[in-house]
What does this fold into?
Amino acid sequence: MSAPPSEAPSRADVTAGDLPPMKIFAAPNPVAPTRSNRDIARDFLDLAFEMESGRELSILTRFEGPITVRVIGKTPASLKPDLTRLLYRLRTEAGIDITMTNASSANITIEAVSKADIRRNLAHAACFVAPNVSSLSEYRAARRTSKTNWGLLESREQLAIFLPNDTSPQEVRDCLHEELAQALGPLNDLYRLSDSVFNDDNVHAVLTGFDMTVLRAYYDPALHNGMSRDQVAARLPAILARINPGGERRAPRYAKETTRAWIDSIQRALGPGSGAAERRNAANRALNLAQSEGWNDHRLGFSYFALGRLMQGYSIERAHSYFTYADRVYRQTPDTAPHRAFVATHLAAHAISAGDGSKALSLITPHIDVAAAHENAVLLSTLMLLRAEALDLLGRNEEAAQVRLDSLGWARYGFGPDWAVRAKLREIAALSPVKRRY
It folds into this structure.
């Protein structure tokens, strides 16, 4: 979970020896948004003219002209290759003129610092972006002044993104995608979006086709700095008809607004600072609120999923029932393939614990390609490790060993250091009733 709103990835031989090289996702697989342009226009306005805290923004702000990006600090090896791929996507999919530079005058500075440094400046944040500064020390000096107040911004000239350099490559990349998107465009997150990184459920790891459509609209020549919400709303239909013609033929869904009470309950359940019982109570409140609102979309599914996660250490069977309900909701909801893949890891783990390899395989197999297409190495490697355990239960040991070995390159990207990869191996192996005997 993201932090509360703020304005500022034989076994003995593998684990005993060296792990295989880290794998990376080379080619993006964006899918065009599947919603009506009328829905996208509403989403755009709520993303662009509000902040996560609910604070309204009076005008549109963006960069005008070519945008330059530089990287400073003690950078992890994966950061620049991932940034290069992201900038290419922004140029080709969103039509944004953005390039890398080494100049100190760059419009956007990405500084790689420790997680502790980030949290000393913004508690509970994994990463963040700030206006009118180019380093963490500069932000520290200006954090409580008008200089870093997004609400007072009239245009975007200079921003800084602060990313952790002591975590897994995937976490760094995920932060990079979301924070660079917010540095360029919308500052808000909306739980009603099922196909976007602009959603604090953190289901999507990289910018989606919807996100690129929003950014392309954000930098359309028909818009400019200083426009009001009404002025932007008047021009959006023509912009979206031009850049997303398929959305003109779809009927709008008009998803209900997400209530602040539900958001607060979800953040209390999955965010930092609460005990186990308090988290379960908050998740129960979120589920009750989703049901009372009459939601039948991914937010109801996520309510069941969150409660299932928190019940695992309290009642395995009740947790399993909540995951089953979550899958049922997601199965009936558009744009939820990655959501179902996350649920599948829990349902398959339950089947493996029961010694049912066939059921586990049937649960896992449809979602491996989904995890790969959405570039989620944590999810992909977890599914593959679960698949290996299921194959072992069925006596298909050679196949299991190959799947397990193939998973480790993705696990190195998703989970990071070797000790974290081996810990994940042990965690999933411990699910098997066969392995638990030894």
Q: What stands out?
A: Residues 1-6, 8-16 have pLDDT under 50 and may be disordered. The two ends are 36 Å apart (CA to CA).
